[in-house]
Amino acid sequence: QPEFVESGGGWVQAGGSLRLPCTTSGFTVDYHGMGWFRQAPGKQREGIACISGGGETTHYGDSVKGRFTISRDNAKNTVYLHMNSLKPEDTAVYYCARHRDYACSGPDYWGQGTQVTVSS
Fold first, then answer.
1. How far apart are CA 77 and CA 46, in angstroms?
2. What are phi and psi for residue 112, nearest 5 degrees?
3. What's residue 48's pLDDT?
4. Cβ proximity of 5 and 107 under 8 Å
5. Helix (H, G, I), strand (E, B) or coil at 33
């Protein structure tokens, strides 16, 4: 059974930065695209970044493009979300997810989430 441990969330002022690691276990991480999603209060869950199994391809949602970067270290079974120039509207619970295959075809397993709060 895939498992995920997300960390790095917390409180930050607008304009600041955070890095969210997601450490995985229970599957061969190299075989799967990995993604980050977020859900703000009263809003639907939003896909914000995805990276292919070997890290060759990345995709970003328009709301974070140019500010957030997704990366992975398969030797450490860890995926990262580097968040810069944070805005109050980035406040949400951030979820790490495994995609069904090597690309970003859609998530099949989710982490528990980590809260990020950005104050103005």
1. 24
2. -80, -20
3. 97
4. no
5. coil
